[in-house]
Amino acid sequence: MLQQDVNNMIWLFATFILANLIALASPGPAFVALSNNALNNSKREAFIFGLGLATIATFWCFLGFFGLTTVFTYVPWLYTALKFAGGIYLIYLAIKTWRGASLPLKFVKTAANKGAHSFFAGCAINIANPKAALFAGFVLLAVFPVDMAIGYKLLAMAIMFTLEATFYSAVVLWLGQPKMRQTYRDAKKWIDRCTGVVLGALGIKFLLQRA
């Protein structure tokens, strides 16, 4: 019986990891914002930005295990407010990115306070990201049993943070290569404007979604 329970949990965690990887790989505000950050700032600043994303994604996971779905069910306006705030924030980022498209690319040494700013900027993206909230509130609970032991819940959160941080770090390393940055320099104006359009479209989508 114990072996059967262990095998069942292994299967559930494998499903959880696969679902998380699919969610990470699908285009969303976190991926777009990180890519833009990695191309425009130092690697250290982009890494810190990615840690902010991973931290809040794990925080949503924590809330998902401890009642987020119930909160959204009984307080539906809270989810609506979350989507609205996320949409407005993404539209703000879209306008900012579009306006900066024509500015020259400059890399500066990251100060300590700038690193903290990057961390909280990454946090803000995923706080205002309904995709992250939905994954934590519904996908997690669809995979794992509600009465799962706290130890397994903590393990799931640790796995999620590791997957998120590893994925975002890999993106930063890839986009931080000199060849990639030179390509970006050559086409910065159009890449930034496309990024702005994508962020704006995501923001509008969040504002218009009913559920």
What this model shows, in words?
- With 211 residues, the chain is mainly α.
- The protein is built from 10 helices and no strands.
- Mean pLDDT is 78; it is low at 108-112.
Topology:
Elements: H1 2-25, H2 29-40, H3 43-65, H4 68-74, H5 76-99, H6 112-127, H7 130-143, H8 150-175, H9 178-186, H10 188-208
Mean pLDDT: 78
Distance between the termini: 41 Å
State the helicity in percent bands.
over 70%
So how many helices?
Answer: 10
Calculate Rg over CA atoms.
Answer: 18 Å
Instruction: Write down how many β-strands occur, each being a DSSP E stretch of 2 or more residues.
Output: 0
Q: Main sheet, how many strands, which sense, barrel?
A: none
Given the C-alpha coordinates, what overall shape results? globular
- Name the poorly predicted regions: 108-112
Taken in chain order, the helices and strands follow as HHHHHHHHHH
**What structural class do the secondary elements suggest?**
mainly alpha
Proportion of residues in β-strands: under 5%
